[in-house]
Design brief:
This protein is of the alpha/beta class. The chain has 2 domains: 1-56, K homology (KH) domain (GMP Synthetase, Chain A, domain 3); 58-158, 2-Layer Sandwich (GMP Synthetase, Chain A, domain 3). 23% of the residues lie in helices and 29% in strands. The chain has helices at 58-80, 125-138; strands at 7-10, 27-31, 36-39, 84-90, 93-98, 104-111, 113-118, 148-151, 157-158. The strands form 3 sheets. It has a 3-stranded antiparallel β-sheet, with no helix packed on it. The protein has a 3-stranded mixed β-sheet with strand order 4-7-9, covered by helices on one side. A hairpin with a 4-residue loop joins β2 (27-31) and β3. 16% of the residues are buried. The mean pLDDT is 95.
């Protein structure tokens, strides 16, 4: 059976002028668990005051989705291998470029996970790299995009 995922994206003009392109890009994302996330266009794309830098923009959400998916698979594979992960932090970065039609897209996402491991099992760097490779291969989001997704794992910390 196919899994189905849904989100509601809602925006309102709130009386602002529209055809002069001076309307707010601020909107709301709602998810099935009840959480609502303030969203907006990126201020790098739509200048202030028509965007909201405190809200999540689609490009940031895309990068976060790739990072989160990779992390969840990494944690599952580490647990299965008997490796105790205490912390996982990734400062992922997406970079825009132009495609062959001259349109901008998120061309590259670099994941930079830093993992803290405790317990008796102290995996070698090659084992950590294997787990990252498996996580990337299994990540639903990475398998769904044409962007290059690069994993540059930072040195593992042993607690």
């Amino acid at each position: 059976m196919a899994h189905r995922y849904a989100a509601t994206v809602a925006w309102s003009r709130d009386g602002a002028s529209f055809t002069d392109n001076r309307y707010s890009r601020r909107h709301r994302w709602s998810f099935d668990g009840g959480i609502e996330v303030p969203a907006s266009s990126s201020p790098l794309v739509v200048p202030l005051p028509h965007s909201d830098p405190s809200a999540v923009d689609p490009e940031e959400a895309f990068v976060a989705s790739l990072s989160s998916c990779h992390m969840l698979f990494f944690l599952a594979f580490a647990a299965k291998a008997g490796i105790v992960v205490d912390a996982y932090e990734d400062e992922a970065v997406g970079t825009m470029d132009k495609n062959d039609k001259g349109r901008e897209y998120v061309a590259r996402v670099v994941l930079r996970p830093r993992i803290t491991i405790s317990g008796e099992k102290r995996p070698a760097a090659a084992e950590i790299e294997r787990l990252h490779h498996a996580a990337h291969d299994h990540c639903f989001i990475a398998s769904s995009v044409r962007s290059d997704v690069i994993v540059e794992a930072l040195p593992t910390v042993f607690a």
